[in-house]
Design goal:
Number of helices: 9
Distance between the termini: 44 Å
Mean pLDDT: 82
Oligomer: single chain
Shape: globular
Number of domains: 2
Number of strands: 0
Structural class: mainly alpha
Strand content: under 5%
Order of helices and strands: HHHHHHHHH
Amino acid sequence: MTAPDVPWWGLASSAVAPVLLVGGWTVAARLQSTPFDPVSGTVSELMAPGATDRWVMTAVLLVVGVCYIVTGAALRPARLTGRLILITGAATGMMVAANPQPAVGVSVPHTVWAALGFAGLAGWPAWAWRRGPSVPWGLRRSACIGAVGTQLIMLAWFLAEIFMRAGQMGLAERAVGVDQVLCPLAIVLSCRLASPAAAPSRPDPWCRRTRTWRLSKHRPVRGSSRCRRPGRPPGSLPSPAVTGSR
């Protein structure tokens, strides 16, 4: 598999997603009419009913989900199962924006869709890796398992913040989001920058036939030692008609 296996639009979508996500929640936090603490406040609060300009964070999550889907469609060197999990995780993440967290209380649909989205975006590399010496480093088994392990650690931190109320829930959620959005970009870059596998060299059939004819006729090699096709400068090889006759 070579770099052209991932088209340019797959690189564009994977590169736009992290910029849009981080920039989106930064702008949405600054638009709030009351001071918003990104360390303790979650992204869901920025698109909850009652938030100032809640459409900003809602639109950002929807567009980032589309970027994930486009990247999954473009990541052709990866296994199909992993790509489908990435696309499914992105679609469920978009459902989080369609089912916002209420200002007071807990929304079951929001929680369920968020859990499914986090799980899909965290686990898809485990089903995307491939074997082979020409596989880009981002799609090798060790790299994919390492990416999943890192994201699971981030998710464990986020879950601990939810249940322990340690005051860093927003920071943990943002760490998970950045890790998940950078993973497809790293894999796409590894595929785009991968060197094409060296094709095995095969002997030229014209050279092989010419060499057999010379050995059978016990004729010395004249001219250059390189194999030449008919029609090249004279003094190197006989014509094809002579070569074919024994």
